[in-house]
Amino acid sequence: MIYFMFATGIENSYPTIQGGRVRMDEMAKCGHYDRWQQDFDLVTQLGVQYLRYGPPIHTTWTGPDQYDWSFADETFARLRALDITPIVDLCHFGVPDWIGNFQNPDFPEQFARYARAFAERFPWVQLYTPVNEMYICALFSARYGWWNEQLSSDRAFVTALKYIVRANVLAMQQILAVRPDAIFVQSESSEYFHAQGPQAIGPAELMNAVRFLSLDLNYGHRVSSDMYEYLLDNGMTRDEYHFFLDQTLKHHCIMGNDYYVTNEHLVHPDGSSEASGEIYGYSVITNQYYARYGLPVMHTETNFAQGERGDEAVRWLRKEWANVLRVRNDGLPIVGFTWYSLTDQVDWDTALRENNGRVNPLGLFDLNRAIRPVGQAYQQLIQEWRAVLPTQSVVLGLPVTPPSQQTAPQRQQAAQRAQAREQAYRAAPTNTEPAKGEQP
Predict the structure, then answer these.
(1) Where is the composition biased (Low complexity) (predicted)?
(2) Which residue in 72, 197, 202, 257 has its CB near the most CB atoms, within 10 A?
């Protein structure tokens, strides 16, 4: 039984820009393909046992039911040898060239087969994020026009969103068919839109409803009448909506939510918006999401640039950790925290819209793999809190098994227990809305 997951991640975004001609592959930009063994050693050096990580989809998934597992075989074997538990990102802001983009109606079913093939090849993997930040992926690709299809309309946004979330749902189904005790961490951006004045209340309320759509659909949560009309007006059919409403996978999920200083927005009367900076903060917004879904929570992404003083990122780490403790003390079942990512990133200062090669000092280590002050602070934080949190009753225990204990008999026993829980869940009189805090 695992009580709290301290995590980091290897940045593996790979959207396309410039009409699909340029792929912004963060693993390449950050040197991971050449230094992956060293990167994994850095994870163990920090004392981190959980790593958000996934194979590059565009080089692994080479065609319909065609896969090149060579890189994944090496990297995941090493993770297992080091006893690092991966939270596997299967789709992180992009698709292979042969799929095209997120407007492709074939994507969900094709992706589900890819997810199953991965689960069959790596049966010891238990934790998954099938599609990372579904809302942001659809927003940046099909509403802002920045990535992939580079479209800018509500219809394109709804199309991308329904295919992305359907892909996530179908992938969960296929993974569970292989690994019945799999747990899904929905890493999703937690947003809030503040009205600049009374005239901006209407546009802000609309945006605050749209921010929930990806998780509403994923968890089978009924949307408001306004959002139902919005979805249908922009191309979703009644049958498509009811596909999502009929899903019963929520009890396999952890609501992973990401929070950065850019996650809050100031909305103007004309409906435009700009970054507002931190106003509410992580704990307030997380309480909003928890009130809606009632699921265990994990803080799945945050970072801050190391600035001229050298302590800016450390201060942000302390602030976010204080927010995690506030959420915990409020009685919410929070199960983990993540500084994202392990190393510095490249070109995220333009949200990967421009291929400038500009290094962003956001990592626990720089791109030379030298530890940053925030890396040292995170290492110390883990050492201090790891022994304390399991003794606190408000911290939820998760049935997660480290890779070193993932033997075939153990997996079979875990599968049998998971199947028994699933049968009991489906036999219950009401199984669409688990009680708040119910563990997967």
Answers:
(1) 403-418
(2) 257
